[in-house]
Amino acid sequence: MSRSAHPAGPRHADVYPEGHYTAPADDLNALDEKVWARTVRRNEEGVVSVGGREVTRLAEEFGTPAYFLDEADFRARCRAWADAFGTEADVFYAGKAFLSRAVVRWLKEEGLNLDVCSGGELSTALDAGMPAERIAFHGNNKSTEEIVRAVEAGVGRIVLDSFQEIVRVAHIAQERGRRQRVQIRVTVGVEAHTHEFIATAHEDQKFGIALAGGQAAEAVRRALKLDGIELIGIHSHIGSQIFDMAGFEVSARRVVQLLAEVRDEHGVELPEIDLGGGLGIAYTSEDDPREPHHIAKSLTEIVTRECEAAKLRTPRISVEPGRAIVGPTAFTLYEVGTVKPLEGLRTYVSVDGGMSDNIRTALYDAEYSVALVSRRSDAEPMLVRVVGKHCESGDILVRDAFLPADIAPGDLLAVPATGAYCRSMASNYNHACRPPVVAVKDGAARVIVRRETEEDLLRLDVG
Ligand code: LLP
After folding, report:
1. 358 in ligand 1 pocket by Cβ < 6 Å?
2. Of 164, 266, 294, 399, which one has the greatest count of Cβ atoms within 10 A?
3. Does the annotation count 307 as an active-site position?
4. CB atoms within 10 A of CB 290
5. Does CATH place domain 138-321 in 3.20.20.10?
6. How many A from CA of 350 to the centre of ligand 1?
7. Could you report the average pLDDT of every consecutive run of 10 residues in the chain (463 residues)?
């Protein structure tokens, strides 16, 4: 059934309000493995577990709301990406999706590199022992202080985003007697099929230097003249939550074309190209993400083919998946506080978190799944909207979903696929305390980011 169609059939009420939902699954107790972390299971009584730990116990021990992250799944996904690209390419995990010391250690152990885009991410990476040469530093407006720290730490590359930054980084490195390895981020003019706010390769936005009009070629010209920097390649990131490989194909083709122009003009073959991140994950059963080996195969083939056509040596490829690694590995656990049926409309189920722990629904109209995880229920499906406890009506976590009609205060709900861009974009709106991140593996659960407390909030308030 299409996502905009209204469900029909004997099990459901005749009329549902306008919405963006599919018919309820035949069995609401079933957990679609596409959207849940790999070790998530439901037992006979209907209690869901992750990493061998039941959510009812986890809620008692760590409270709600809380993010539970399946460490084995995270590590497996790292390995899948590393294996898919092999020794011919480099995988940089995009720390903006979610970063903590534990994550940095896992990445290090699993052989991944790390992309950071702020001083805060850089210090987390270095503090947890990521070797500086395995770090890439991004951002469209890095401060002088951030550049100094990155250069002095010896990061493997800085991705330059503007003409000013080319000079700035070169100057800072030269003053310190360094030659900083850099890439130039270009905008390739691709309209990625994703939400406007997370598409980044069309020309009218803040990132990168446009290939159009010869801007990127001019940036390369300038960069090659400066002693403080060594230009090692070209970078392109077309957007996020993308399923269609066509955008990457156009992007790779245009970047290779620039490499050929650079070779023709300067006699230099730049050795690297970075195609960014952006690969989509399943938030609902409707989404069909690609496996890393498919992605690796198609990206490598495209680049190799284009390079052959341009008679270029194939550059070393790198990619920067964030969401595709961490997104599916976590769910957010909430407790139901109130259930409010609105006659002829829908039922609002309020939980103890909201837009402060997941802003994505409000910001991007993101779609999520939700399940009752503390017990089994064979009650009829009921159309619900899962909302938070914040003071605005846009505080929606799951816009349209089906839950069993006997849902009640005290039940635990879990929203899967919240590993990426949820804790990392969490806020203190309404002085909410940001939830903890708990890593679960082989029957053991440990807090990797603790719950914020009211004391933490008051400590910042020094008036
Ligand atoms: N590389 C660069 C240069 C990026 O800007 C990004 C994401 C990535 C890699 C990783 O993209 P991923 O593989 O995670 O899609 N807050 C939005 C997503 C913003 C993405 C920003 N840049 C969301 O919640 O959907």
Report:
1. no
2. 399
3. no
4. 16
5. yes
6. 29
7. 39 56 85 97 97 98 98 98 94 98 98 98 98 98 98 98 98 98 94 64 85 96 98 96 91 96 98 97 96 94 95 97 98 98 94 98 97 97 97 97 97 98 98 98 98 98 96
